[in-house]
Amino acid sequence: MYELKLNKKNKRIRKSKCSGKIIAAAELSEDINKKISKYSEGVSAVLLTSIVLVNGISVFFRYVVDSPLGWTEEFLRYAIVWAVYLVVGSTVYRGEDMVIRLFESLNNKTINMIIIVLSAISTILLTIVIFIFGIPLVISNLSQLSPTMQLPMTIPYSAVLVGFFILSVQTVLSVISKIK
Description:
By secondary structure, this protein is mostly helical. Helix content is 69%, strand content 6%. The protein has a two-stranded antiparallel ribbon. Helix 1 (19-63) runs antiparallel to helix 4 (154-177) and helix 2 (71-93) runs parallel beside helix 4 (154-177). The two termini are 17 Å apart. This is TRAP transporter small permease protein. It is a multi-pass membrane protein.
């Protein structure tokens, strides 16, 4: 199962014969994670740009034309919610999530991996709780419409579910990519 190899400093190291497949899986998960992060950040950037533009239009119509647009506040609120939840998974990909970093200074790979896995498990458990309570909430609001835009309220409420789904996928992919 294991074979001994020499590294660059001519020290003997144990290397698994199946480590090539593990490394390939880790690299593939890293690539998928990067693409998901890039896409969600791109959509969020478009939303943030539209937020700035719509806010500018709102200010113009309110103070220059003296005829405020009612739908802009609602759009801004829902767009901000979507922008935030779309990029919540990217924090895991970039390593900017809130994890206990206390033991990283020990340079002990086993302890670091245990912390990474425990953090991932807690994130997945939180996602399950969000889905258990969030799906019925979204379904119960199928017929409710927003006041000014007449947008189905399932759209803003589903931002939480989509964001946590992306978070859980990126969490699993990040753990796989760190197994190298």
